[in-house]
């Protein structure tokens, strides 16, 4: 845990849960992702379909639409799927752009069906197998806390800076740009960085979203 | 103004500005966008370069990188540019995916150089010329308020629902999905909807970001 992260909220063992307050658990916490894969090739349909088949969806709900593919499940399964999906498309050699959107704990009604006020959920940092595919990414993290909890005041920039410091320690951080942080490295290392920021902030904030745009095999790359 | 939006914060005419508090103004408010255009065609480089040239960048700072193009300036100029850029690419007939990220009032240091605590900035809703290009989009809005201001408490879901109600009234709303709202219509109408939510929430919240993924000419569309 990076020192800039606020102290995690812990419920003492045996402490009674107040009546009517739902307990956060992995099955009702709205942990999921949306991913849009764009492949700049005349064979894009075949490459995208092949990549969707190549990714291991064990343990996940996957629903492909015309704008994005929705993925829901536990964080390690979800991140493994995203890493395999994106790297499979990149191995075609075509220029690939992937937009990845992670969300947890949304207290919405229609969108996520999670009751409000359930509080944050502790998850572990995810580790992924190296893909061998280098990428450049732009990342934005959104801690969405209105009121604070257990003496920890909301401060979305504090949480964002802590996640950026984590990326610096991990070696994927390149620089801060307007509105986003630039990351470079293996697709798996970038996804690990982004997921870690999301999970770590999610230990004190219920609703956390992040967005990552990944560019691979770009002709205007380095 | 939709009734669900919180009452706008107004400073009485002639009220003294407290010493040391920066006044929000359009030139230091970090109003900008990032856009990534993906064109699924062997001619994607030529189509993207032609579209960048076709869009009217008057009044804007535009900087194209290998992951996204950064655009900064007044809201009407910025939205006109995005609408012209995306619709130009779509007129190639190729399947186009555009990722659009709008941001205003970020109190970050490295990223946006806006001092914290300047408060919200009033902007007008933007109107755009019809493009004739139909699109489907997935939209997420992030009001990033930590402390409230002038008696208006932070409530990010209240602000998001107000923006969704605005989209319903405008006719671009199709349905709520997990983490996003699905919009359909002319590219200009979708961008107007997204920008309106961002501007309206921005009348009470300093830091507001939103993300839109647009899909045009999709072979899996309707």
UniProtKB/TrEMBL annotation, chains A, B:
Signal peptide: none annotated. Residues 32-109, 139-220 form the Thiamin/hydroxymethyl pyrimidine-binding YkoF putative domain. This is Thiamin/hydroxymethyl pyrimidine-binding YkoF putative domain-containing protein.
